[in-house]
Structure formats: structure tokens, C-alpha cells
Amino acid sequence: MSELPGDLKYTKEHEWLRQEEDGDVTIGITDHAQSALGDLVYVELPEVGQDVESGGEMAVVESVKAASDVYAPIGGTVTHVNEALSDDPEKINADPYGDGWIVRLKPSGDGDETMDPDAYQAFLDDLDE
Amino acid sequence: MGSQTPLYSCHVGAGARIVDFGGWDMPLHYGSQLEEHHIVRRHAGVFDVSHMTVVDLSGAGAAEFLRRLLANDVARLKEQGKALYSCMLNPDGGIIDDLITYYLAPDRYRMIVNAATRDKDVAWINEQAGSYEVDVAERPELAMIAVQGPEARALAAPLIDDEWRDAALALKPFYALEAGDLFIARTGYTGEDGWEIVMPAARAASIWQQCIDAGIRPCGLGARDTLRLEAGMNLYGTDMDESVSPLEAGLGWTIAWDPEDRDFIGRGPLSEMRANRDRRKFVGLLLESKGVLRNHQRVVVDGKDDGEITSGGFSPTLERSIAMARIPAGDYEHAQVEVRNRLLDVCVVDLPFVRNGKVRIDL
């Protein structure tokens, strides 16, 4: 199992969040999530400017196996989407914490039930048992 | 925990992701399902298919029994080793299973049936065999692998004993050979050339390793599913079941209507369905945009919304989404599929999508 990046927050839905310097939050799915999904073949992204609610559907990632909703871990307005995923959804498999990022939000302050890397690692360890 | 094949520990050792398939713990992939798919289309892959059920039928009444049991006619098998794909129907014409029967001798046939249907198949076969002079023997002590891909036979040939190698390489498509304790058939479920090899369970791990040492890559059930979907091959329990006749599953070509006096199980209801021009048809769909078609999505044609995708997914060869679907009668070039409350345009195409490494539809 690969090391979890220390500068990120994590959710029970296997998403990660990174606080950017301009106040935005970048969101993607974790290595555990991409590995469980298998090879990704399609990503449905939200529109820039779209408002999302905490816990609402934000994107859809489809692997060879199945389609999975990506729920917004916090509420906010979409400021950027990773357009490169349209042609190369496998970037999520190859680099889930880097080139495989999915969206950037300007947070509305709505919802923030995240875990630090140690807590998420403990959560993953529990799942394996 | 489910049943395990004799190769289970090989899969775990190779880092496979194990999933339940019809009560069996089987490898889904060994890292990347997409890579495994391409390996089979371009080079060679090996699949563990030991979960499938081998049933040997022997006795003076074996042929007569099979001509009653199966919708296809084993009397078509004139040459030793020839294989026949058929449906086994219930009295209503619904599909109990699809299977391959190999003609070994006038009084000996080998049948290979699906894993998930094993119990009901064996029970049904035994029940029907009652009055015939036939012995039905399940062969759980046998393992089975499939080496598939354009280079598969050449790479796997060295693992066959000298005595049998030339004969194995000379097998024509859809023929099999009994080679000592191996049974080698030029058949498969990927749309590529290759062999399916049945062997004693005790030899399975060593033969598997020889395949890998020869440069044949282990491939899981995930790639097997996308390969068979591209090849337009039906999956039992997904594309058809006991509520569906072969006529609505694209398998009309497997029904032997002649001779007319052959009274195979299900023939009466099937004949009535044959006369019904409104029966649903089985087609291929190609998604025109990005996205992925999935099983059970609704298909709309010509204002009628009761079509359904039976198998849908992403085609690694076409880099588009494809599906097999049952749709209302009629000739259509275009249809729509409901995906997450939106209607997406699809082309209606003839199956298969891909065969022997070549794309068979217009993109």
C-alpha cells in the first residue's frame, strides 16, 4: 500500500482534498478508490461555475467495471475541472493525487467532515479486516 | 469464501484481484484489465477457466439423447473431435444454458457447460437421461485453461508432448483432440485464435507456469468479459436466461430445425416463436459520444422504450462504448439509450464488433 500524501485531507468516500493558497480546494479520489474501481475509461465532469452541495453528486467516474458517483465532500462553486481527464481518464489510475485531480471548488463553508492522513489510514486498515 | 480452482494460489501469488464469480473465487485482473485485453488481441493471454464444468456422456444412446437434449443437432458432427455450440432449452423454449459439445467417438461426447449453472445443468441432464442408454459423468477432477490470442498456439505448443504437438497445431477451428491426459480444443471465448486445454488438476499449476514462462500473460475474467463482448459472444445469465429463447438472444443460428421430426426439448414453443414476426431482436449498439453503456439500461427505438441493454461496457479495441441489446422488432440504424436520465444516441450494428484482431463495424 502506497504512502498517503501528508498535506491532504481525506473522506470516508475515498476522496482527497487539498487546500490551495488562493482559498480554493482541489478534490480527487484516493489511490484506494482508483485501485478498487480498476482501469478508468470515462469521467463525467461538472461545469465550471456550477454550485455543488456537500454530499451532492459532483462527478461520475466510470471504470471497465462500473460507474461510480463522486460526491462533493464540501459545498462550493466549481472553479476548474480537469479537462485532461476527458481524453485520458487513466490519469486517475496513474497519478490519483497529482495529474488525476478532478475538480477545484471555491468553498461555501458548507460541510467539512474530513480526516487527516493517519485517521484515513486507520479507516482503510479497518476496511481490510 | 467460494470454491477455488487448482490454480487459485497461482493467481494470489501473481497479485490478482479476486472476485466471486458464480460461487468461485476467480481472478478479475492481475493489475490492469485493459492491458490484459490488448495482450489477447495482439499477442497471447492465458485464462483459468477451471470453474467451468466438464460433463462426459458415453453409451450407445449418447447421440440419441443429445439429439433430444440440445437445440442444435449432434448428428451434424461427422468428424471426430468436431465441436458444436448449442443451447439446452426447457420445455417452454427458454435457455437453461449454452454449451459446447465435442464429438469424441460414436458413443462418447464431452460437454462443457457454465460454472454458475453447474448444479441445475447436471440435475436437468440426469433427469432427462433417464430412459436413454447413456452414462453422465461430471469431471470435477479436471482443470481447464484457455490460451488465446494470435500468438497463443505457437507459444503454447512446446508444452504439449512431442507425440501430440503436430496434431494439436493441425487442429482446425472448432475441433478438439484427445492428447494423452490432455484435451486440446481450438475454441475460445475471446474472438481470437487459441486453444482451450482440459487437464488433470494435478498438472494445472505446472502447465500454467509453462505458459507464463513461454511469454503468455495471465489474464482475468475482466478482460475475458470485454473480449467476449467485442466478439459478440453471449454470456449466460446476462444476455439470456430461462425467460429468453435463442431467437431473442441472437442464437437462432444454433437451432437445427432440420430434420423436422427431431423432437428436441422446447421445439414446439420455439416453432411458434419463430413464426412470430414481432419478437424482439438482438443487436449490437455503438455509443456515438463519450460515456459507457451498462447492463440493464433502457433502449429507445422509434418511440418504443422497452428495449434493454443486456451487456454493455467499454470496448478497449474501439475505444468507444459498445453493448448488446434486445430491442423491439424492426429495422433500425439508430436508437437512444437512457444513461443517468439523459438519452444518448447509439448506432445499431450487426455483431460482432471485433473478430481476430479486426474491427468489423463502421466507426
Describe the model:
Chain A is of the alpha+beta class. Chain A has a single domain (13-118), classed as RNA polymerase II/Efflux pump adaptor protein, barrel-sandwich hybrid domain (OB fold (Dihydrolipoamide Acetyltransferase, E2P)), CATH 2.40.50.100. Chain A has four helices and nine strands; from the N terminus they run E-E-E-H-E-E-E-E-E-H-H-E-H. A six-stranded antiparallel sheet of chain A has the order 1-2-3-9-8-5. In chain A, strands 4-6-7 form a three-stranded antiparallel sheet. The longest helix of chain A is centred in the last third of the chain and has 12 residues, at 117-128. Chain A starts with 8 loop residues before the first strand and ends with a helix. In chain A, 40% of the residues are buried. Chain B has 363 residues and is an alpha+beta fold. Chain B folds into two domains: 1-231, Probable tRNA modification gtpase trme, domain 1 (Gyrase A, domain 2), CATH 3.30.1360; 246-359, Aminomethyltransferase beta-barrel domains (Elongation Factor Tu (Ef-tu), domain 3, Beta Barrel). Chain B is built from nine helices and 21 strands. In chain B, the strands form five sheets. Chain B has a six-stranded mixed sheet with strand order 10-11-12-9-3-13. In chain B, strands 14-17-16-15-18-19 form a six-stranded antiparallel barrel. In chain B, a hairpin with a 2-residue loop joins strand 20 and strand 21 (358-359). In chain B, helix 2 crosses helix 8. Chain B is globular and about 60 Å long. The A-B interface holds A 38-39, 41-42, 44, 60, 62, 64-67, 86, 90, 93 and B 17, 28-29, 32-34, 222, 226, 290-292, 294, 313-314, 316, 321, 340.
